[in-house]
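Explain the record.
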Amino acid sequence: MNDEDALADFLAHKKRLTDIFFPNSRSAIISQWVISNIQHYNSDSDTSAYDEFWKFLLRLQKIFARIVKLRIDQSVLPIANFRTELLSTLSKHQVVIVAGDTGCGKSTQVPQYLYYGESNSNDTPGPNSYQNIAVTQPRRIACISLAARVSTEMLNERGSKVGYQVRFERSRTKATRILFLTEGLLLRQMQMDPFLSDYDVIVLDEVHERHWQTDCLLGLVKCLIVVRPKLRVVLMSATINVNTFAKFFNDCPIIQVPGRLYPIDLHYIPLSPVEIANTTDRIDPAPYIRLLRRIDVTYPATERGDLLIFLSGMADIQAIMEPAKAYAEETKRWIILPLHSALSASDQEKVFHVAPDCVRKCILSTNIAETSLTIDGIRCVSYIENW
């Protein structure tokens, strides 16, 4: 196959992908741009420029491959089967409860369903769509990470259609249509604007956790829907006590979304008699280092899979950090990252970065990572009982 045939085949393949994953207008722009450059970089063109254009096409191919994987991942989420039901139910009722187990996709997909409505593309909103959506989260790291994830899936930069707002930090602009914010900030906004007139839909996520801010918002929102009959409210919860919320909102409809189950292997690593005998009030890092070493021995370095270790607090994380970093420096096979609420947003975001080849992440976390966070690449989860 010569260069011209290869280029024609590449263009046809990209045209099919753009028709599927991009709106028609964007597809036409991309196709016209590629065609114009193909005509420009013919065999008589400068060789270096021709090579650069081919390199660009290869980069474009990788981008499209990532988009294809992204769309496939979205389509197989359990929540995807309930999109039409959610939009139809919300058009008839002011309040809808979405009850689903962790991992069903409700936190990332429901805001997008509300924005795009019944549109067949990921660009122009269709029927039953809403243009100003507030999504509350109990934790600031959840706001930031979910905003980043939804921005990626919508092919938008953060601060455009999707933004977040937490205490002392925000990425909200006039163009923002989906805003992730903490429950406390939404309460603060109600002090300034009791009717929350900036929003068409209010999504209260993780309502089953029942923080005091959550309960305050539930009571205030129940009053608000009386004076704003066009306002829509979506409560998202685990499958625990959802009937309590339904009764509070006059038997509002409940959409039950199943979760996804994966095979889980449990490995018990008992402490040695010496470790038990040497136990003090301070946490012993030895069992954790032994766990890192066991993973290194069991799985080859080329095999992806990060480790998430749950600890009881910041003091335990600090006690493990230095010995773990020393082991990581020795083996060159680990990156040790803490995760707790006192970290800055930039430090918290490091846990979402992909580790280099042949290197794994070890995340030392409090219970902040139990809900609302999706850290790609986690293969092992550890909880060690201290004597």
